[in-house]
Amino acid sequence: LLEQIPAAVPDNTFVLIEAFKADTEKKKVNLSPGIYRDDNAKTWVLPSVKKAREILQADPHLNHDISPQMGYPDLVSVARQITFGDTLGSRSITSMQTIAGTGANYLIARFLTYVAQPKTVWLSNPTWENHPKIWRHTNPAIEQRLYPYYDYKTSTLDIEGMISTMKEQASRGDVIVLQACAHNPTGLDPSREQWEAIANVCEEKGLFPILDSAYQGFATGDIDNDGWVLRHFATRSNGAIEFAVAQSFSKNFGLYGERIGALHVVTRNHDTAAKVEATLKQISRAEITSTPGFGAKVVATIVQNPELRKQWQQDLNTMSGRLRDMRKRLHDELTKRETPGNWGHLLTDIGMFSMTGLSQEQVTTLKDMLHVYLLPTGRLSFTGLTTGNVEYVAESIHRVLTL
Ligand code: PLP
What is the pLDDT of residue 172? Predict the structure, then answer.
């Protein structure tokens, strides 16, 4: 039975993590994973998370029961608050805790497959490398198509291409996956005006948008600013648009291993919301039964405690500020060397990632010759840059581009 299993293609991110571990070169730099590191390239436990852990562990009533089917109630409520602020008004919504952002993306894909059998799912070109995998794994019969997003020549957003493709080629009932902020892998987000144009197309064409929100707070440090599009979809057009938000707490709380996230499905009326809830419960029961408890309590404790919330804001400022600083440092080092390429966008892109324009071959040379690791697409994760290695990285990129 098992001998017929077809060979599977290994995941790039995890292959690189292993290769990096095995590399014995002291100067090696890992710029591939989307996991925040401090200026010593070390994992960073947010001070707000440390304090929340202390509070929880000092509580004699802390237990390890399973949560209700929709998740740990305080987590679900703070997840909704972070996502929508006070903008929901009377809109009907169903929110469920999930296994981080991946689980939220997966759950909505499973849900839509189950209730609506969409013909096509539209993904940005390029997108997070797991989006196509999640949809293929959920239902290979759903056609995956790419909408133009990144103009590789100019390193800018191809908004005209995106809008015209959706207008001309998308059909009613298609799903479109959008990223709410700090787009992975390009670091390029639509402006507010452009978001309005995108929302108009979704509405006119009767598409179902999924707003993947993995980096709220990472772009500018301000969750309200970074969450603008989430609130825009909730408040626009007399509540006519149905959509979902797949939310991750991995990055903005540094809780990568705890697997905390939420799925929000915004509907037109309460009857629909009740049916959505019943179906989500059914799927979740079959898949996971219950959601992780400890990380959920950490997030809820931070958001509900005014002092810890203030600390969390400082933590977001620390992380987003360090990334902005590294963007500037790398930009300055490359321009100082007159490295061929267009580097101005490193300053205007936001969040963890930017595309470098390096070819797959150049990425391989960078790794094999100089021990600097990027994804094969040329995506660079600023989290691995530090004041100690930025000059070496710039020099390495310069060498590869001037070979
Ligand atoms: N969505 C995007 C765009 C991402 O980049 C990521 C993580 O890299 C996720 C979702 C999911 O993250 P997690 O499952 O770790 O919360």
Answer: 96
pLDDT average, residue stretch 129-137: 95
Classified as helix, coil or strand, 157 is strand
Give 3-state DSSP helix, strand, coil % of the chain, rounded to 5. Answer: 50, 15, 35
Quote the domain boundaries for residue 199: 73-304
The residue from 256, 271, 304 where one domain ends is: 304
Q: Is 67 close to ligand 1, i.e. is its CB under 6 Å away?
A: no
ipTM tops the 0.95 cut: yes
pLDDT > 70 in the chain, percent? 99
d(CA 118, CA 127): 20
CA of 351 to the centre of ligand 1 (A): 13
Active site residues: 128, 212, 251
Are 291 and 323 contained in the same domain? Answer: no
Which residue has its alpha carbon closest to ligand 1 atom 4? Answer: 214
166 and 206 Cβ atoms separated by less than 8 Å = no
Domain annotation covers residue 221? yes
Handedness of CA 339, 342, 347, 350 (dihedral sign): negative
pTM: 0.96
In short, whether 184's Cβ falls inside 6 Å of ligand 1 is yes
Those residues with Cβ within 8 angstroms of residue 275's Cβ, 6 or more apart along the chain or in another chain: none
Which three-class secondary structure state does DSSP give residue 269? Answer: coil
The Cα-based distances of 249 to 75, 171, 303, 392 in angstroms read 11, 32, 12, 32
Q: What tokens does 14 get? A: 């995890």
CA 39 to ligand 1 center in whole angstroms: 22
d(CA 211, ligand 1 centre) in Å: 12
